[in-house]
């Protein structure tokens, strides 16, 4: 009996101690990691304490029960990202254009999935690569289904529940190397769905995703001792490489389902490797390890796959200057659109002829 009471005292003491330590900002920053579910949730709670909405940088987010968060529908001329302009249509797709699910006659459709680089953080609606791509391909509609912070699991769900309704001819996955690690966690920007690999394929977890009010109300009941254990365990898994192995296996499973969904709806999947940050300036001959992973997958599955790093490197040799501190600016999106348009036409996936886009002066960001 004494041992039981002693054990209970130890558990209560640890719980109270960890709650105090995590609530002290300098100490909490040292304890918390960057790539685990508990740390991400605690950071979100701290940013939203006393609030009942997403708030923060992305004031245009709304809760989504399947994908975690989505772009608020019906936004008009919202100033974001240092006076960039954001609009969204009635379905939450970036821009003001409304798209019927039924594809118009003699129009080809491209649906693009991706994260903040596809969505267009730090640029306006008319500066995203989806916008430039549509201008390069007359008689083609390009639907930007990118959402900041998405993992490939959320992109798959967006395609399955909404994207395929638009009857696309081509589905493009805007691939950013770190998105696969978002697939591992049930919390990143906010609570999100996850997939587990099973013998029958993928098994969906964490759906429906609870709303922010519920998440904030439940925080007091969550064990901080358990959170500390999760943080320590995840640090070990990252250090020994387990999470890298898990992430690649899970990404392949998600890609398989994305490709199958696309082909079931008579569309062509295309994977596009988007170079980001310092990758843009990497002049390495041959493929990087991150590029090689996607290349090997596409080669094995016979999927059209485009790598854009050479486009960015060549543009810099001509005097172009790109933002490597955060997201692309307009000239980065234009460079990506040019590469994608040329690839789609060369492969015969889109038959529209090239149109002209006014050039961006060399050496400028926007």
Name the CATH superfamily assignment: SGNH hydrolase
The CATH topology corresponds to Rossmann fold
Q: Any idea of the CATH class?
A: Alpha Beta
Helix/strand/pairing category: alpha/beta
Quote the distance from N terminus to C terminus. Answer: 71 Å
- Main β-sheet, spatial strand arrangement: 6-5-7-10-11
Shape: globular
What is the rounded Rg? 22 Å
Uncertain runs are 354-366
Mean pLDDT: 91
Percentage of residues in strands:
5-15%
The biggest sheet amounts to: 5 strands, parallel
Secondary-structure arrangement, i.e. CATH architecture: 3-Layer(aba) Sandwich
- Count of alpha and pi helical runs: 13
Total domains = 1
Short description:
By secondary structure, the chain is an alpha/beta fold. The protein is built from 13 helices and 11 strands. It has helices spanning 2-23, 25-31, 37-48, 116-119, 129-136, 152-161, 179-182, 212-218, 224-239, 242-264, 289-301, 309-317, 330-346; strands at residues 61-64, 68-71, 78-80, 84-86, 108-114, 140-146, 170-175, 194-198, 201-205, 268-273, 304-307.
